[in-house]
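Hi R.,

Quick one: here's the Helix-turn-helix domain-containing protein sequence you asked about.
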Amino acid sequence: MARKAPRHAEAERNDRALLEAARKVLARDGVHASVASIAARAGVGIASLYRRYRTKEELFQHLCVLSLGRWIEAAERGLEHDDPWEGLVHYVTATIEFGGGALGPLAGTISVTDEMAEKFTRSDQLMQALVARAHEAGVLRADAMAVDISLLIEQLGRSSLVDQFEERGAEGLAGEAANARDRTIAIALDGLRAGHPPLPGRVPGADLLAERWEHAPGQ
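And here's the predicted structure, written out as tokens:
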């Protein structure tokens, strides 16, 4: 396998660091997250960042593309599992652990690029395939839809106790928090299994999450 050019490898490392930093800063500061805070947390120089991305919006758009790539990878790995339930478990667990919902605060504040839309469509198709397979196998409750699972992932994948304790430098407590997070994920997954009483209310609209990304002019 050919080795990557040093600059390309460095760009990939910076991308990973920036995405992780953005996840944590957005969880803390929401839409008020600054490029300077993200760059500082990632250990990337602000000047070099602005040489690569002309605007804050351009940086956030790129981070959304990277995050959607992680969702796609998690779904593809999930579909590789022979067992439909284990495939769904992998997908939900992986997306929660990397903070799949962390970029939610950006919804409606930036324009959706063609690349973002393309990756969102691909991610949604793969997730629908995971859900359909689990329904067909009778392992996923019949009234749990893809949008329900997306909402669950987003709610559990935002700011966690793990991040909060790491922010304070309390590594021992961060380990305990990671254990608690794993238990919470297991509880949530058990609630998705077939055989439970019906869920309350009606199924959320399929466009519930997508519509919030409609960009208001002037934002």
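DSSP finds ten helices and no strands in the chain.

Cheers,
M.
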